[in-house]
């Protein structure tokens, strides 16, 4: 939001504030970063200079490897260990289920190619929200942000955390379900631990993501290797053409659409690198590379994993299992069956870390645009991490954990999530028409976004037909942001008492969290319209 859209120094939701070096020097004495120096020895001065970065800004510490692990780590959560049951149930046959898994990866690849173009054309953190805000304006972007912060990411984090705690506690409570309170406490403990890690260091958070992503791939490789051994030993009856496509009933188009939705849940997270674009080293090069490496790799691994499942389990066994990977381990790994629940727990632990890392950057981006309180746009003056945004994400997730009813919420989340994908990729087409000469380092073929939108519209249509109440509630949740936007963001002349309260609250938050507005060069926050068109004689942003 532009500065003239707010009254006073701080609006109800906070104005857009991004500071240059001179701005930082001029902050008032209440700011924790405005330090008064006492006489110090040369050694103390040298130590202090080493501790405090020359420029307080988000650090570019995500290289190509970490970028790949963010995508792979966020995609591979609990879905591939659980979703095969839902895909098989709705598709009706092993062969059709494998086709659904492969096509699900292809659809994710189409979407990720579109996001690669958007990510290098509008190189801002925040993903869908930043692109929609830039293309369609503040209200549309705010509605995506509102639904994401209010329900989408807290609910997804809560579900992943509960899955983690259930699998960790499974060996302790072998003959019964883990106690309700125990799962909640362990989930909250895990969230608090990973929030502390993300507040402490970007490097530490990305290293955790790297390690746990490798662990996930190793667990899936174990399943694949065991499955291939079974195939080489002649146990592949369920994969023969005659058996694979035999079905008791012919699935309807609606059932196939629901099978795709189940597979898509396992592929969700393919767009998460776009939420941290500004922390990627050379994003115009590494963002598309990471996408093009990660999505095919995950599709390949997912397909082979399902082949391994079907080589060792009959369709009846798979449908009767609530945790396919655990049943697979119990059947084939013998004494080493404990590896599977541990693998699922580690996979979900890494998923929580990835969701915290990326969702906090969404809050950060929203606050920077003036759509959330300005405190959330601040980072620690030494560690350069968005501590207030991370704390808000953690607190919102713990609230969802306390509510307890996550099953219905996750249905609303799925609808809102798919709606945001379609709106964003439709924005790509609109941006092509609106600014045809804008320099685009990557420009995908027009068939890519059109094909994705056709598939998206089909799935969305069947969702509206089969679950009208769920979709209706999802839309209502999103539209509750309209009055919030007009009261908190669009309303310019706000009472002074509100401005004073927000200013005091922001000052207290700064002192508690030791945070300041990041210093960003003006060229880094230029809007796409200022980067100049390729047809103009001026130098474009990408040609620096």
Automatic annotation (TrEMBL):
It comes from Gambusia affinis (Western mosquitofish). PANTHER family: AMINO ACID TRANSPORTER, ASC-TYPE AMINO ACID TRANSPORTER 1. The keyword Nucleus does not apply. It holds the Pfam family AA_permease_2. This is Amino acid permease/ SLC12A domain-containing protein. Residues 1-50 are annotated as: Disordered. One of its GO terms (molecular function) is L-amino acid transmembrane transporter activity. The lineage of its organism: Eukaryota, Metazoa, Chordata, Craniata, Vertebrata. It is a multi-pass membrane protein. GO terms for biological process: D-alanine transmembrane transport; D-serine transmembrane transport. It is found in: Cell membrane. InterPro entries: AA/rel_permease1 (IPR002293), AminoAcid_Transporter (IPR050598). Gene3D superfamilies: Amino acid/polyamine transporter I (1.20.1740.10). Residues 17-34 have a biased composition (Polar residues). Its main location: membrane. The chain crosses the membrane at residues 62-82, 94-115, 136-169, 181-199, 211-232, 252-270, 291-312, 332-358, 387-406, 412-432, 444-466, 472-491. It comes from the Eukaryota. One of its GO terms (cellular component) is plasma membrane. The keyword Magnesium does not apply. Keywords: Amino-acid transport, Cell membrane, Disulfide bond, Membrane, Transmembrane, Transmembrane helix, Transport.
């Amino acid at each position: 939001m532009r500065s003239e859209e707010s009254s006073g120094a701080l609006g109800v939701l906070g104005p857009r504030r991004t500071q240059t070096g001179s701005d930082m020097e001029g902050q008032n004495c209440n700011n924790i970063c405005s330090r008064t120096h006492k006489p110090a020895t040369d050694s103390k001065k040298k130590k202090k200079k080493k501790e405090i970065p020359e420029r307080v800004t988000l650090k570019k510490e995500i290289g190509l490897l970490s970028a790949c692990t963010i995508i792979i780590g966020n995609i591979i959560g609990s879905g591939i260990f659980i979703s095969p049951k839902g895909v098989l149930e709705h598709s009706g046959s092993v062969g059709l289920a494998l086709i659904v898994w492969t096509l699900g990866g292809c659809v994710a690849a189409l979407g990720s190619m579109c996001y690669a173009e958007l990510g290098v054309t509008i190189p801002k953190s925040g993903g869908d929200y930043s692109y929609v805000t830039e293309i369609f304006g503040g209200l549309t972007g705010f509605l995506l942000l509102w639904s994401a912060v209010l329900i989408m990411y807290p609910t997804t984090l809560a579900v992943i955390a509960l899955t983690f705690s259930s699998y960790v506690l499974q060996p302790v409570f072998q003959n019964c379900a883990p106690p309700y309170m125990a799962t909640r406490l362990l989930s909250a403990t895990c969230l608090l631990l990973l929030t502390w890690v993300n507040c402490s260091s970007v490097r530490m958070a990305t290293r955790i993501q790297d390690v746990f992503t490798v662990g996930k791939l190793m667990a899936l490789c174990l399943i694949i290797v065991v499955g291939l051994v079974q195939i080489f030993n002649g146990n592949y009856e369920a994969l023969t053409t005659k058996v694979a496509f035999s079905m008791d009933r012919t699935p309807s188009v609606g059932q196939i659409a629901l099978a795709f939705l189940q597979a898509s849940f396992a592929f969700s997270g393919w767009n998460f690198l776009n939420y941290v674009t500004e922390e990627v080293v050379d994003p115009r090069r590494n963002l598309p590379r990471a996408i093009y490496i990660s999505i095919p790799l995950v599709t390949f691994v997912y397909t082979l994993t399902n082949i391994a499942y079907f080589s060792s389990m009959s369709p009846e066994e798979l449908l009767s299992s609530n945790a396919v990977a655990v049943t697979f381990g119990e059947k084939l790994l013998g004494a080493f069956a404990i590896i599977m629940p541990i693998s699922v727990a580690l996979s979900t632990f890494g998923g929580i870390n990835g969701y915290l890392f990326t969702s906090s950057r969404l809050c950060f981006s929203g606050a920077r645009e003036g759509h959330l309180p300005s405190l959330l746009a601040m980072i620690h003056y030494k560690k350069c991490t968005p501590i207030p945004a991370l704390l808000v994400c953690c607190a919102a997730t713990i609230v969802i954990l306390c509510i307890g009813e996550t099953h219905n919420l996750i249905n609303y989340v799925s609808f809102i999530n798919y709606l945001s994908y379609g709106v964003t990729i439709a924005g790509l087409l609109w941006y092509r028409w609106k600014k045809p000469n804008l320099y685009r380092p990557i420009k995908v073929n027009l068939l890519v976004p059109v094909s994705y939108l056709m598939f998206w519209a089909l799935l969305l249509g069947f969702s509206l037909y089969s679950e009208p109440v769920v979709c209706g509630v999802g839309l209502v949740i999103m539209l509750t942001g309209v009055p919030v936007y007009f009261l908190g963001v669009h309303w310019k002349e706000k009472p002074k008492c509100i401005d004073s309260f927000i200013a005091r609250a922001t000052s207290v938050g700064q002192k508690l969290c030791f945070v300041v507005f990041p210093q960003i060069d003006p060229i880094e926050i230029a809007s796409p319209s200022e980067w100049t068109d390729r047809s103009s004689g001026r130098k474009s942003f990408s040609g620096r």
